[in-house]
Amino acid sequence: MEKRVYSFAPGPAVLPLPVLKEVQRDLLCLPGAGASILEISHRSKAFTQIIEGAEANIRKLLAVPDNYSVLFMQGGAFLQFALVALNLLRGAKKPANYIITGAWSTKAIKEAKTQGTANAAWDGKPDNFVRFPNQNELNLDSDPAYVYFCSNETIQGVQYRTEPIVGDAPLVCDSSSDIFCRPVPVEKFGLIFACAQKNAGPAGVTIVIIRDDLLQRSGDDLPSLLNYRVVAENKSLLNTPPTFGVYVVKLVTSWLIDEIGGLEKMAEINRRKSKMLYDAIDQSDGFYQGHARPESRSIMNVPFRLPNADLEGKFLAEAAERELCDLKGHRSVGGCRASLYNAMPVEGVQLLAEFMQEFQKKNK
Ligand SMILES: *Cc1c(COP(=O)(O)O)cnc(C)c1O
To answer: Distance between CA 76 and CA 11 in Å, rounded?
Structure first.
């Protein structure tokens, strides 16, 4: 087998090695099913156990209250930008409020505006999206249809510390790049969605956790597959779900429960990993410049710059020689970015932090 590198890719991204090995071992024949996960019916007993197991794992990990539904959908997080507004805003006689902290929430409000009135409660663009706003900076309407935010801006590396306080309005969250990175008080949210390919599984499946009373907002005139209420009523099996994706999500969430020991433990590891890189940045006398302000720094994505583009190119090339790969920043912000999702081993981050210090010494 070819050697695996350390992939700091932003998504699709690294998966836990024990999960990949289990997928490989069972790919030809899922125990008890007599066939591959790629070959069995989504209505079979084996798949029913998988999708129910994935839901049970998610409920356990996040302590999801009973009055919430867990859905498995397709179309990625990007489709959720539209579906949130299609289901919760269209037809409402009031606006939705969006907290704009980076590239993904900017895309989300644009999609929402196709369905109704969406006002920015705060916009970090003038500051180049370096932080999450304070509560007193939020300009909320008196009775918004919902308040939307992105818990972790994957491109800018901005992550919230405490969720915004929004009164009775449902809080809607795009948690695509930080779901399962730490515990979350789900009861404070109306809806949380996350595509799987950053921190939860492969591309193709999107997790939606929605408070049941909000399902009543979905209009009867919506196409069934775009209607949260209909998808919930059919337990995500209205049509063929992304079976392989759901299967891997089940394995990843089982790994989090059985091998990591839950989200408190995962958060501790993630804080430790990200601190190694932020320390390397902070102790570099300005050689490395982090993008986000310290109080909003993400424990999942660490974007940083070097003194000039030539050094950045050299850094990326030399890092790749050491099998520290996919560290190029997003084309919209440039520089470098290390994504440290749950499955990135501590030793990979340690190697990167050591390389950063060494590279600085040689090139300052
Ligand atoms: C990757 C990402 C998206 C887009 O996900 P797709 O599945 O490609 O649509 C949306 N929001 C955030 C925060 C992301 O990281």
So the answer is: 12
